[in-house]
Amino acid sequence: MCPRKCSCDLSRRVQCYQVGEIPREIASTSRRIHISHSKIKTLQVTDFQKMSSLEEFVLTCSGTESVEINTFKNLDTLRILELWKNKLRNIPSSLPENLEVLKLGDNLISALHESDFEGLKNLRVLDIQSNLIVVLSFITFSSLNSLQSLTLDGNNMESVTGPVHLPNLKYLSMEKNKLQSLSGSFFTSLQNLLFLNLNGNLLTDMPPELPRSLLSLKLERNQLKMMRSEDVKQLANLSQLFLSENQISSVDGVQHLSSLTRLEIAGNKLQTIPVRLPITLQKIDCSNNLIGKIQAQEFHNLQDLKHLFLDNNVVATFEDGALLKCTVLSNLALEQNLLHSIPLRLPQTLARLDLKGNSIERIKEQELSQLQHLQVLNLRNNKLSTLDYGFVKHLPRLRYLYLDGNPWNCTCSLLKTRRLLLTQGTDVKGGRCTSPLESQGESWMSSKRILHLCASSNLHSSEEGKETGKKINVDELSSLRGHMDDYYDYEMD
């Protein structure tokens, strides 16, 4: 029978919720047991004595404070042990030597000892994040020769020391600690490390002697001031580099990163785009810096670049054709800059163009005439008062157009533009009139009042045409009114 407050399935998996102890009725043949949101203060040897087939045990959010000595020792089939979000103060003792995954995040563990991991020759994954470890010696892990992933995030660690003997480690994360530096020999034996995460520490310099094997390096939210050529010259395999939210004013040596596809350096103090960018780049994020000018030489031969973020800078000058060599660029963000016009000769592959928060007063037809693939155009919070029909007809795939926060002068000339936008099925947000006075607050995309005013104006002009021999008959008048009625069923919000 399946225990009360539990569910059981044919794969011999048992899930229990809000129990007060490990249910005695759990079948001895169960392979996986998951218990959550319960009240189990202590785990005991007797809880698992009959579970000779247990491969995975997960206990979360259950207030567990201690584990009796040898509780898991004789569980020879146990491969995965997770005791997340409890109140443990120590690593459980005498763990089975066949254990492969041990996760003890969100507990109250303050110290690690070498004896905690003795005999765990098959352990591949160790996660001790969000505990209370302040000082850590990596000699503690010296017996874990099979370890591939080690997570120590959120422990407020102030120092870590070596030697580090983890020859098979591929993933190391020490995010959200208080590390100020790492010794030059720290990475000496980590020659197979692929992913290193040091986000959210107090590092003032890039770690020395980083492993050549690295594919991804995360150093965001530290106190770095520069990147030097000697820091990264050996990282020819690096694919992703994250340096956002530091105090970096200069970047040197990026040309050595010949495999780099992603560079994120937002929220720093850069005044120019890093020079000699690798041609392999697919994404660059330089937003929230102090960049004032964009030049073609900075993006020379970036033929794989798909995403470029330059928002929240002080860009006032954008060289014509600066991005023409970026022949697959689809996303360009230029929000919150100092541009007075849309840059000329942008790549025709663009699908999204963000220009919110600049000082653009008018859009010229040639500025967007090549953007046949553009789907999203954000023009919010500029100084636009009119929108020419010629601008819209070059954007056949435009699906979203954002116009809020502009001082629109809602004359009848906008209705031709409006009609084409409706015909193309473009979803237009915004467009409220600032002038003339009688149209203030109305939207030139959805206001029936403006349509009536312009229809009346057209009719009045037609009556005046009688003096030059022009006449409008009843059928023509009916046709005109019917044509204007086509707009009335289109309402924004």
Automatic annotation (TrEMBL):
<dbReference type="InterPro" id="IPR050333">
    <property type="entry name" value="SLRP"/>
</dbReference>
<dbReference type="GO" id="GO:0030198">
    <property type="term" value="P:extracellular matrix organization"/>
</dbReference>
<dbReference type="InterPro" id="IPR001611">
    <property type="entry name" value="Leu-rich_rpt"/>
</dbReference>
<dbReference type="GO" id="GO:0005614">
    <property type="term" value="C:interstitial matrix"/>
</dbReference>
<dbReference type="InterPro" id="IPR003591">
    <property type="entry name" value="Leu-rich_rpt_typical-subtyp"/>
</dbReference>
<dbReference type="Pfam" id="PF13855">
    <property type="entry name" value="LRR_8"/>
</dbReference>
<dbReference type="GO" id="GO:0030512">
    <property type="term" value="P:negative regulation of transforming growth factor beta receptor signaling pathway"/>
</dbReference>
<dbReference type="InterPro" id="IPR032675">
    <property type="entry name" value="LRR_dom_sf"/>
</dbReference>
<dbReference type="GO" id="GO:0000122">
    <property type="term" value="P:negative regulation of transcription by RNA polymerase II"/>
</dbReference>
<protein>
    <recommendedName>
        <fullName>LRRCT domain-containing protein</fullName>
    </recommendedName>
</protein>
<dbReference type="GO" id="GO:0005615">
    <property type="term" value="C:extracellular space"/>
</dbReference>
<keyword id="KW-0677">Repeat</keyword>
<keyword id="KW-0433">Leucine-rich repeat</keyword>
